[in-house]
Design goal:
The protein has 17 helices and 12 strands. By secondary structure, it is of the alpha/beta class. The strands form 2 sheets. Strands 3-2-1-4-5-6-12 form a 7-stranded mixed sheet. A 5-stranded parallel sheet has the order 9-8-7-10-11, sandwiched between helices.
Length: 414
């Protein structure tokens, strides 16, 4: 990025990543601007210059337009494309011909973060043509698994808590701010505290259950749960709640899976524990006469489970890529970026229990490597080392012509 550019930052995760990236861009000679929408944003940004937007969402359009007109931003940077303030800002940016860079957690995990032009997940620009990936990958380096990074849960939790503690003064300094999250932070923290105090006991029981299931050697399907607040569920799926997913899957399993098969439902590691999944699953198990065939765990190592699975059912979670990486038949109930012919199972859910189609390994390697080249930066969003790696790695993704646009120029847009 040699030419001087002007970057406007909006909200990121509860993480120092955006402030570190801004420092790097400023050091490289670019103009950097920021809008803080709440006290947590301001705390993360520190003493760096920024505007504060203290009004309601109805006034944001005019506020943004005045800033775009005055400063002529070349680039807009934000995390997640479905926050209300981001959807509005992206529309303004397109009006002014401003490039939009959307960050998210990695499509490929662990060790990677995502940065795409104009949208992620359901709004990703990645093609849906398997042949395109097979052709393009021949011209790319092999990215492998990247340099490993590790983020202790306590680090991520501490940053999230610090962000929301700062937000305690919002009623005074940002009185009109409304979070995009469905519940207040204090409610989520109460749920996490209750769940994690019970987790050590649950983990021991889960290990015994998983050991028994794997030792039996019976055909075992896996359903990993996602967070109900995840944009992948809220905006990019036909479901309102993961309880609806469980109900759909278990009804199909009861009516169409061979009687010797079993299914294991695993909760998301960051679930707040506010919804009683265990009770919901137990009720469905009784109603559908599935006693002894349906199991639920709060913990467990998914890659190990996937190695032994007859198949994996997901909505659109990135763990689907991990299942495909293990060569496991995978059924997607929505349209994630990896929902391609030859990767996910082409049969419907009812048929998947009897005829789970395994992925084409060559296609998966080409797809994964191309996705990394076009949209991923090695690193993470929370640890000191991982953030430094991610800042270095994402600079090529912020180029005036993105890596994906370069591939379209070379190989055509399918």
């Amino acid at each position: 990025m040699n030419a001087r550019r002007s970057f406007l930052f909006l909200q990121g995760l509860a993480s120092p990543f955006f402030s570190r990236l801004a420092d790097r861009l400023r050091t490289d000679g670019h103009a950097v601007h920021r809008i803080n929408f709440c006290a947590g944003d301001a705390a993360l940004w520190g003493k760096r210059p920024a505007w504060s937007f203290r009004h309601g969402l109805e006034g944001l359009g005019a506020f943004l337009e005045s800033r775009f007109q005055t400063h002529g931003f070349s680039d807009l940077i934000l995390f997640g494309d479905q926050r209300p303030i981001h959807r509005l800002a992206m529309g303004v940016a397109r009006t002014f011909g401003t490039r939009v860079h959307v960050f998210d957690e990695g499509y490929v995990r662990p060790n990677w973060i995502t940065c795409e032009r104009d949208g992620v997940n359901g709004h990703s620009g990645l093609p849906r043509d398997p042949g395109w990936y097979l052709t393009v990958n021949l011209a790319l380096p092999n990215y492998g698994d990247g340099r490993p990074v590790r983020v202790p849960l306590r680090v991520r939790a501490a940053q999230d808590i610090a962000y929301h503690v700062a937000n305690a003064v919002n009623p005074v300094v940002y009185p009109n701010y409304r979070t995009h999250r469905p519940r207040p932070a204090v409610v989520e923290y109460a749920g996490w505290a209750r769940r994690f105090t019970q987790l050590s006991v649950r983990e021991r029981a889960d290990r015994r259950l998983i050991h028994r299931l794997l030792a039996q050697g019976r055909r075992l399907f896996i359903l990993p749960l996602q967070l109900n607040s995840d944009a992948q569920i809220v905006h990019h799926s036909p479901f309102r709640h993961m309880a609806d997913v469980i109900t759909l899957v278990l009804k199909s399993f009861a009516w169409h899976a061979p009687p010797e098969t079993q299914i294991l439902i695993k909760n998301h590691p960051l679930d707040t524990g506010l919804f009683p999944y265990r009770r919901h699953i137990a009720r469905l198990t009784r109603e559908l006469d599935l006693r002894g065939r349906v199991h639920y765990v709060e913990s467990g190592h998914l890659p190990t489970l996937f190695k032994h699975a007859a198949g994996v059912v997901v909505v659109n979670s990135t763990v689907g890529l991990s299942a495909l990486h293990q060569g496991r038949p995978t059924k997607a109930l929505a349209t994630p970026i990896y929902d391609l012919p030859g990767l996910t199972s082409g049969t419907d859910l009812d048929g998947f229990w009897r005829h789970p189609d395994p992925p084409d390994r060559r296609l998966f390697r080409a797809f994964r490597n191309t996705v990394i080249h076009a949209t991923q930066a090695n690193g993470d969003l929370f640890s000191r080392e991982g953030i430094a790696m991610a800042v270095d790695g994402c600079l090529r993704l912020l180029a005036e012509q993105s890596p994906l646009e370069e591939l379209f120029e070379r190989f055509g847009r399918p």
